[in-house]
């Protein structure tokens, strides 16, 4: 299967991993869920980051769609990110 190095999970052909992540995101309590504008801002930063590869952050090993969805998390790279 061909995989896009700059793709998020929701854009990939393999939907199984995305479904699992989506279930997790849907179950996140509202008080720790990043609001939609901030979530999109975070993902845009990740997509342009040199540590981003095929939906994952090579710095922390997380799917960025999961890490960015929690308002109580930060980019592991530091203050220049989110
Ligand atoms: S979480 Fe930070 S270090 Fe990781 S891909 Fe996103 S911007 Fe880059």
Keywords:
single chain, 82 residues, mainly alpha, two-stranded antiparallel ribbon, binds iron/sulfur cluster
Can you walk me through this structure?
This protein has 82 residues and is mainly alpha-helical. It has one domain (9-67). It contains three helices and two strands; from the N terminus they run H-H-E-E-H. The longest helix is centred in the N-terminal third of the chain and has 13 residues, at 15-27. Strand 1 and strand 2 (56-57) form a beta hairpin. The structure holds iron/sulfur cluster. The site of iron/sulfur cluster has 13 residues, from helix 2 and helix 3.
Bound ligands, each once: iron/sulfur cluster
As laid out across the biggest beta sheet, the strand order is: 1-2
User: What is the number of beta strands?
Assistant: 2
Q: Average pLDDT value?
A: 93
Q: Give me the secondary-structure category.
A: mainly alpha
Oligomer status? single chain
Q: What letter string, H or E per element, gives the SSE order?
A: HHEEH
> DSSP strand (E) fraction?
under 5%
What's the number of structural domains? Answer: 1
Overall geometry: globular
Stretches where pLDDT is under 50 for at least 5 consecutive residues are: none
Task: Tell me the span between the first and last alpha carbons.
Answer: 32 Å
Count the DSSP helices: 3
Helix content: 25-40%
């Amino acid at each position: 299967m061909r995989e896009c190095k700059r793709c998020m999970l929701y854009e990939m052909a393999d939907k199984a991993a995305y479904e699992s992540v989506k279930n997790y995101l849907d179950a996140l309590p509202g008080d720790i869920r990043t609001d939609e504008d901030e979530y999109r801002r975070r993902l845009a930063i990740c997509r342009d980051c040199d540590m981003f590869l095929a939906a994952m952050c090579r710095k922390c090993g997380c799917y960025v769609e999961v890490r960015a969805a929690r308002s109580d998390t930060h980019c592991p790279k530091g203050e220049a990110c989110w």
